[in-house]
Amino acid sequence: MPPLPIVDPATLDPTRVIRTKDQIYQHLPQRYEFAQLDGIIHMDPAVGTAAGIREIRADEWWCRGHMPGRPLFPGVLMMECAAQLAAFVQHEFAPIMEQGTFMGFGGVDRCKFRGGVVPPARIILVGRMVEARTRRFVCDVQSYVEGTMVFEALITGMPLKMEA
To answer: Given the DSSP bridges, would you call strands 101-113 and 137-145 parallel, antiparallel or unpaired?
Structure first.
């Protein structure tokens, strides 16, 4: 049985983008095909929650090989989406890092895949800040497609130095 939603996806409007992809990646270092979030549609600093969207298209680079004849959004990319949402939550609600660092993927716990994502699809990712320290950040993340939870995990981030 899935856990209770962090934020009920039925209450979120995916057309009401409050941070665009360009705005998100002014603060996150991923680029090109690894910029996984398409927009932020919810932020509540009082409780440390945010929600983002990821539009899954049938012409993406991974579709040809994962799985031929039946494209299935890779679980590792779903984790990457979750990690990027967690890094966004950290940047917005707990700016704890030193200049010249970014929030890197530090670990994943309680990860469960609850359904496949077949393009075209819209994933709604919801995250809640759990812990913010100088050396680590923890965020609870859930992902939904058409109101059904397809992924959940506890994501840990750690500051990494930017290199020129």
So the answer is: unpaired
For residues 79 and 153, the answer to whether their CB atoms sit within 8 Å is yes
pTM here is: 0.96
Domain ranges for the chain, please list them.
9-161
pLDDT the model gives residue 150:
98
Phi-psi category of residue 69: left, alpha or beta, with phi > 0 → left and psi -120 to 50 → alpha: left
Query: Annotated active-site positions, please?
Result: 66
CATH class of 9-161: alpha beta
The predicted-structure confidence for 33-53, as pLDDT tens digits, reads as follows 999 999 999 999 999 999 999
